[in-house]
Structures are given as C-alpha cells and as structure tokens.
Sequence to fold (170 residues):
Amino acid sequence: MKKILLTLAVCFCALSVSAQEWAVGGRLGSGLQAQGEYRFANNNYVEARFGMSWAYPSLVADFTALYNWNVCTMDWTPSAGEWFFDAGCGINVGGREHYAFVGAAGCAKLGIKFHKVPLRLSFDWTPAFGAEIAYWGSQTVGGYKIKGGSASDFNERGLCNLGISCVYCF
Fold:
C-alpha cells in the first residue's frame, strides 16, 4: 500500500512539472485523499483522488476518478479571487479487509481561485454508491471449521461524503 501511494505521488509530481494545466493537492473529508487535476482548454477538468479513511474496524482505501464541468463563475470578491461552481461524475473503487466496492460517483463543488496565489480552495459533496462484495476463505475457529463464501450488498456509506480541498495550480 505504501508503494502504491508513493508511486501515485511521484507520478503526480512528475506530470505537474511538465505541464501548465495541472493542479495537485489534498482533500479532507471522510478520510485523507491525495488529489490531482488536469484542466482542459474549455475549463472542464479530470480529477483523480486516492486516499484512505477509517471505517471500524479497519482502514478503507479508495480511488475516485471524475470528469468535472465548470457550471458557472461568480464575481463575489473581485479583489480576492474568482468563485466557481463545478459539477461532475465518474467512478469510485476501493476496499478493506475482505470487502471490495465499485460504483458511480458524482461531484458538486463550490470554491474560490485566488488571483495573487496559485491556490484553489473548495467545499464539495462527492456521493458514491454501488455494489459491495464480501469474500472470505475457509477458517478454523475454536476447533470448528467455517466454510468460506461470499456475499453482496449495496455500498451506501459514500452518500454523505463532504470534504474540503486545497490544490496548487501549476
């Protein structure tokens, strides 16, 4: 897991040095996430997040990829920066211990891009929902053999995913 995080961080940094449309940063929400963005000429952008959160009794790792549209910009504070509202959709995958999940993700984001510093701050809601699959192997507990198996369920924990992001724009 540490190797994956390190590899993603190095890739984000290496790509951000060679292009001017990139942004990298972090998000604090249901967990901690590293975030990278690539902005197209028409102000739409692709956003990728990789992070971890704590869901009793274990850590949950997840990856979210979103395509976001700039819905509108507002001139509420002309001296400080430009406010924006973005919306998007994508996919969310992840897992913990013997559970894995995959599903759709959405994004609604309100934020500000500062004029004098290359930072963007935003508050977002990123609901994610889809299938959750549990799998386990045969075990011996207290002298009794428990047969392995699998089960499926609906992953609804991602519906209340609110967060604050800060990204550095290159």
Summary: The CA atoms of residues 61 and 95 lie 6 Å apart. The longest helix spans residues 2-18. The radius of gyration is 19 Å. The chain has a mean pLDDT of 84.
